[in-house]
Amino acid sequence: MTVRALEFFSGIGGMHYGLKWSGVDGTVVASFDLNPVANQCYTFNWGVNPIQVGIHHVSAQTVESFDANCWLLSPPCQPYTRTGKQLDDQDARAEGLLHLIELLAILKEPPFYIFLENVVNFEKSRSRDLLVSQLVRLGYEYSEWLLSPLQFGIPNDRMRYYLTARRTGTTKEVESPPVLNLRTTWPYENYQGPQPLADFLEDDPTGNIADIYAVPEPFVRRRRAFSEAAIVTPFSTRSSCFTKAYGHHGLGAGSFLQTKGFDGAKYLDDPSTAVEKLGLRFFTPTEIARLHAFPIDDQAPKPSNSYASDVTSQRQHSFAFPPDLSTIQRWRVLGNSMNCKVVGELMRWALFGNGEPDRCV
């Protein structure tokens, strides 16, 4: 079956790149997003304009006009994030997802495949309960996952919730939300431990990158101390999750890279001294794009050639930032995105592949 996908909440196209990673015979027939900067990036790379409209305004007729058999969804995470208000389905930003859940029941031909990504904690939400109840009601089998890029050999800890679903046609009555059966290990291809961060860093023989991306003093003054996880070296095999606040928020938005003083003290209780002595800098947008497995250059992760005879040609669609995007804008759209390798492998094995174990029905 040729996959014709609708990409909702498309951002900079992480789902689209994941689809290409999977090697499946498929295309994205339309994408939807409200963020003009993300849409600019999407258009720059894919040559098509996402439909800039609130998802809750998309009608069943519009959806049916694309003759799509696959939905790719990455709805806003703010209603569910552990550091937010956790308003869940009462948050206005959940309205788009709730609308799509309702649309499933009135479409003449619901999508055969559904793939969703969101933050950890979504699995405990009422929105999740509404979604999986609707899936069971309409005859889908599904699996739910919590996975991190670390499990796929990438040194970045970006744990996320994923749902993969396929329609079987066997409808059921649902009296209460299905029990959560969360998969937290990857049962398919084995990956070696995470690579060192050095494999993802830009070459900096003259020190220009270290100077340009040095952590500034006003930024440091916002912190009383650094945690062990906040400072990483090129030899580290783990980095913190990069969020949209990276580079302009002082707390918990991503790791800082140490560029010198590897044999000395860390100065975790003295941020100003740590920046000077350790040569702390931000990760560049290119480095974060590599860690998110966007095909920005040859240093970015690539899919195995052991599957899908055309996977090389599928993967040749590269990623780049529009030249007029500022560094802050690049960090923000990356922080709002996802890991293309994790998405692509889930699509390859769990969504489109055969023999998926322990599906829920």
From TrEMBL:
<dbReference type="GO" id="GO:0005634">
    <property type="term" value="C:nucleus"/>
</dbReference>
<comment type="similarity">
    <text>Belongs to the class I-like SAM-binding methyltransferase superfamily. C5-methyltransferase family.</text>
</comment>
<dbReference type="InterPro" id="IPR050750">
    <property type="entry name" value="C5-MTase"/>
</dbReference>
<keyword id="KW-0808">Transferase</keyword>
<dbReference type="Pfam" id="PF00145">
    <property type="entry name" value="DNA_methylase"/>
</dbReference>
<dbReference type="InterPro" id="IPR001525">
    <property type="entry name" value="C5_MeTfrase"/>
</dbReference>
<dbReference type="GO" id="GO:0008168">
    <property type="term" value="F:methyltransferase activity"/>
</dbReference>
<dbReference type="InterPro" id="IPR029063">
    <property type="entry name" value="SAM-dependent_MTases_sf"/>
</dbReference>
<keyword id="KW-0489">Methyltransferase</keyword>
<dbReference type="GO" id="GO:0032259">
    <property type="term" value="P:methylation"/>
</dbReference>
<keyword id="KW-0949">S-adenosyl-L-methionine</keyword>
<feature type="active site">
    <location>
        <position position="77"/>
    </location>
</feature>
<protein>
    <recommendedName>
        <fullName>DNA (Cytosine-5-)-methyltransferase</fullName>
    </recommendedName>
</protein>
